[in-house]
């Protein structure tokens, strides 16, 4: 398939799977979370090969270099071929630290609401 001649930054960030939806990519551009040469870019900015972008998402901060233009969404293993991740190591360490302390949603033992068994035992205790 031919590489597109002109490609918008919001469509590119969506296609390489940095954002889940194209509207989320456009919203990030509007909020100033996508920068090129230390200045915010609009969602309609044209992407060129060898451009470097700094992108802030909820999960992490990315520094990417465009190595190819991709105008449609493909699987992750294909999408990584269209950019180079230049994110500084200290940012990656922050992300790993955050992942280590991330709340898993599982109840830690003996903390929080009692289980059904605990309630039964408590009920038996209160009746005595």
Can you give a write-up of this model?
It is elongated and about 80 Å long. 34% of the residues lie in helices and 15% in strands. It has one domain (9-127): Structural Genomics Hypothetical 15.5 Kd Protein In mrcA-pckA Intergenic Region, Chain A, CATH 3.10.290.10. It has helices spanning 9-15, 22-30, 76-79, 89-100, 116-127; strands spanning 34-36, 39-40, 52-56, 61-66, 83-85. A hairpin with a 4-residue loop joins strand 3 and strand 4 (61-66). The longest helix has 12 residues, at 89-100. Helix 1 crosses helix 2. With 128 residues, the protein is an alpha+beta fold. Strands 2-1-3-4-5 form a 5-stranded antiparallel β-sheet. The mean pLDDT is 84. It has 5 helices and 5 strands; from the N terminus they run H-H-E-E-E-E-H-E-H-H.
Structural class of the helices, strands and pairings?
alpha+beta
Which CATH-level-2 architecture?
A: Roll
Q: Could you give me the name of the CATH homologous superfamily? A: RNA-binding S4 domain
Order of helices and strands: HHEEEEHEHH
- Low-confidence region ranges: none
Total number of helical segments? 5
Choose one word for the global shape.
elongated
Rg of Cα set: 23 Å
Strand content: 5-15%
**What is the total number of structural domains?**
1
Number of strands: 5
**Major pleated sheet:** 5 strands, antiparallel
What is the spatial order of strands in the main beta sheet? 2-1-3-4-5
Overall pLDDT metric: 84
Query: What is the terminal separation in angstroms?
Result: 78 Å
């Amino acid at each position: 398939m031919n590489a597109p001649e002109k490609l918008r930054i919001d469509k590119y960030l969506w296609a390489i799977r940095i954002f889940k939806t194209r509207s989320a990519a456009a919203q990030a551009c509007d909020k100033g979370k996508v920068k090129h040469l230390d200045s915010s870019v609009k969602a309609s900015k044209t992407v060129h090969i060898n451009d470097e972008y700094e992108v802030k998402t909820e999960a992490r901060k990315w520094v990417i270099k465009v190595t190819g233009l991709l105008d449609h969404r493909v699987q992750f293993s294909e999408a990584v071929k269209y950019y180079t991740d230049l994110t500084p190591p200290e940012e990656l360490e922050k992300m790993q630290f955050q992942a280590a302390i991330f709340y898993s949603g599982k109840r830690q033992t003996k903390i929080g609401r009692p289980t059904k068994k605990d309630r039964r035992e408590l009920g038996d205790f209160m009746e005595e």
